[in-house]
Amino acid sequence: MLFGQHHVNLARIEQKLPVTIVSRGNEVFIQGDSDADVQTAAAVLEDLYGQLRRGLAIGREEVDAALRMRRGEVGPADRAEHYAIRTDRKLIVARSANQLAYLRALERFELVFALGPAGTGKTYLAVAMAVSFLKQHRVERLILSRPAVEAGERLGFLPGDMKEKVDPYLRPLYDALRDMLPEGKVQLRIDSGQIEIAPLAYMRGRTLSHAFVILDEAQNTTPAQLKMFLTRMGEGSRMVVTGDPTQTDLPPGTPSGLADAVARLAHVPGIATVHFDRSDIVRHPLVTPIIEAYEGPAAAEQPLAEGERRRPRRASGSSDGQRQ
Fold first, then answer.
1. Strand partners, 242
2. Beta bridge partners of 112
3. pTM for the model
4. Is 312 helix (H, G, I), strand (E, B) or coil?
5. Which ranges in the chain belong to alpha helices (H)?
6. How far is residue 74's CA from residue 275's CA, in Å, rounded to a whole number?
7. Using the 8-state DSSP alphabet, how is residue 143 labeled?
8. Which of 61, 75, 102, 245 is deepest in the core (most CB within 10 A)?
9. Using alpha carbons only, what angle is made at residue 293 by residues 289 and 295, rounded to the nearest 5 degrees?
10. Closest CA to 51 of 37, 61, 38, 36
11. What is the pLDDT of residues 107-152, one digit of tens each?
């Protein structure tokens, strides 16, 4: 189980580290040019074996996660399993050093900003922590919200009542919930009011007390909208604001409320900001090279469509590709 079928897990470690791994019975021999690489490979195998002993399955994603954690120099006292979130359907653990820092921040701070590219687990881990808080009765309700902004499209008139009109925008939040709670429990908690999923516009004028509140895709808010949302925070509540500053769907020239809020609140005590990068992406392996292709220097040299004018390049040191 540790090595994988046809030793696929060992091969994956060899792909990621400049080492050669040979197994003979229950012994493993690791060879490499660097002692550090050999020690890293050995530590990854020990981490994976520890997961197997706890009853967890091992696959490609777990191997990659163990490699990311070791490369992030996470100490024994801060192992991901110490911050595991157990839901009704699965055990959720951090798969990178930044994800581990994120889970710690969600546990300790009442307001957390999470910034980074798609696929880094910003929303998923926040929903998992919110479900955990709800199950432990540390909050009375869970409120999930997103701005109803179209991703570069004009969908026009949508049929149905108000719920049917806004549900397509909130579908990612439903998907995350159903990955952690049985289908019947999700709908039961929604019907009882313990879980509320609503567009950002529904937050105006409210006081959100004793709640775990998540605002997803916050890069698509204006500064006024995000100020309105943040000031809804009531007694005994926690808020998480997630978004990718490089994927704004606001009209051209409209400033993003996420970047504005992070800059304004950078030095306010009691607020945590976690920055993710490409190394934290835990979706399909192709997602990382796709993002690199769109944000890297080659993207700026692509041929222009007829009649399109190239925008002037940004000053050195301020490109999206260098965002931390």
1. 114
2. 240, 272
3. 0.71
4. coil
5. 8-16, 35-53, 60-71, 97-108, 122-135, 162-178, 183-192, 223-230, 257-264, 287-295, 297-300
6. 17
7. E
8. 102
9. 115
10. 61
11. 999 999 999 998 899 999 999 999 999 989 999 999 999 887 654 4
